[in-house]
Amino acid sequence: MDVTPRGPLSAALLAALLTPVHAVPDLPSLAATAVADGDAVVLDEDVQLSLYLMYELHYGLAGADERWEWAPDLLSARTVIEEAFEVDLRRRWPAPATERPVAAALFDLTGDAARTGPGSTAVHVARRATREQVAELLVQRSVYQLKEADPHTWGIPRLRGRAKAALVAIQTDEYGQGRPERMHASLFATTMRAFGLDDTPNAYLDVVSAPSLASVNAISMFGLHRRLVAALCGHLAAFEMTSSLPAARWAQGLRRLGVDEDAVEFFDEHVEADAVHEQMAAHDLCGSLVADDPSRYGPLVWGASVCLGLDELVGACSQAAWAQGRSALRPSGVAAA
Question: Are the C-beta atoms of 262 and 337 separated by less than 8 Å?
C-alpha cells in the first residue's frame, strides 16, 4: 500500500494499517482535530483520504490486515469523521423544498443537472478535451468505477419488497448479468488500459483529489448506515438519471480522439442501460420506497442532491485547473500542506 499521507490523521492511519491490528487510542482525537473546521470537510485532503481508506477496508484494501475492518479505535475515528461529513453535505446540498411526487422531483433535479453538472464535463470531453485531460478524468473516476455498483449494493439487505427487487434488477445489469467480462467495472478497466493507465484498484490514490474521494465516500456512508438507505436510493437514482446522455457524449469524445472501439464500450453500454435504469430507479426503486414509507421522501431527495452536487464540484474543479493550464490531479507523492 504505497499511499502518501495528506496530514496528521492519514499519516497515523496509514502507519497503523501497515502493521497487524492493534489499539490506536489517539486516532479518534486526531479525527476530531481534523474535522474541527466543519465547513471544509468535503474539501479536506487529509479527512477525505482517511475516510476513503477506512471505507476501503470493507471492499478490500491491499496491504492492510483484514482485521482492521472492525478495529474499535478506527471505527470510533470514522464515526467522528462521518458526523462532520454528513453535516457538511447537508449544509452544502440541502434537500430542495418540493411537494412533487418523488419521481417527478427527481426528474426535475436531474434535468437541471444535465445542463450544469456531469453533462457539462461530458460536453467538454465530446468537443475539445485532450487525450491527457480525458486520462485525468478517468483517473479521478477510477476510485469509484473500478468497484462500480459495490457501494450501492450495500442497500440490498436494507430494503424490502418492491424497492429491494428494483435495486437487485439494476445491480444485476451493473454486474454484467453474471458475465464477468461485461461487468461495468471490467469495461471501465478496458477503457483505462486504452489510455495507458494502470487498472489496479487504488493505483492512482495519491493523485485523486478530495472532491473525487468525497463523491465515493458519500455513497459508502449512505450504504453502510441503515438509517441513510433512502439517501442511498436517491443517490443511485440521480446517478442513473444523469448518466445516459453524458455517456453518449463521452463515447463521442473518445471516438474523436481515435481510441479503439473496445475502449468506448463502457460508455456505449451506459447509454442503453442507464436509459432503462433511470426509469427503474425513479419509479420502481424510489417511488416504491416512498409509497411504502412517506417519511423516506426528504432523505431520498437529499441523497439525490448530494450526488448531483458532488458531481458538479468534481467537474468544476477539473475544468478550473485546465483553464489555469495545470493538471486536475494532485502532484504524486506530495503531502497536503
Answer: no
Which residue from 123, 101, 138 is spatially nearest to 294, judged by alpha carbons? 101
Is pLDDT of 236 > 50?
yes
> 155-196: per-residue pLDDT in tens?
999 999 999 999 999 999 999 999 999 999 999 999 999 999
How many CB atoms are located within 10 Å of the residue 225 CB? Answer: 15
The Cβ-side half-sphere exposure at 113, using a 13 Å CA radius, reads 29
Give CA–CA dist 101/205, Å, rounded.
Answer: 40
- Give the integer Cα–Cα distance in Å for 215 and 43: 11
Place of cell 411526487: 101
Please give the domain boundaries of the chain with CATH numbers for all domains: 8-92 (no CATH), 102-323 (1.20.910.10)
For 224, the grid coordinates are 453502510
Copy the grid coordinates of residue 335: 503531502
List C-alpha distances in Å: 236 to 92, 154, 227.
19, 12, 16
Could you give the CA distance from residue 18 to residue 160 in angstroms, rounded to a whole number?
A: 39
| Residue pair 137/188 in contact by the 8 Å Cβ criterion | no
pLDDT digits (tens, 9 = 90+) for 285-337: 999 999 999 999 999 999 999 999 999 999 999 999 999 999 999 987 555 44
CB atoms < 10 A from the CB of 302, how many?
A: 22
The DSSP code sequence of 262-302 is HHHHHHHHHHHHHHHHHHIIIIIIIIHHHHH-GGGHHHHHH
**Distance between CA atoms of residues 20 and 16, nearest Å:** 8
Question: Cα(38)–Cα(18) distance, rounded to whole angstroms?
Answer: 29
Cell of 277: 435504469
Say yes or no to pLDDT of 260 above 70.
Answer: yes
Residue type, 170: I
What would the mean pLDDT of 20-49 be, rounded to a whole number? Answer: 95
Q: Is the pTM of this model over 0.85?
A: yes
pLDDT at 118 over 80: no
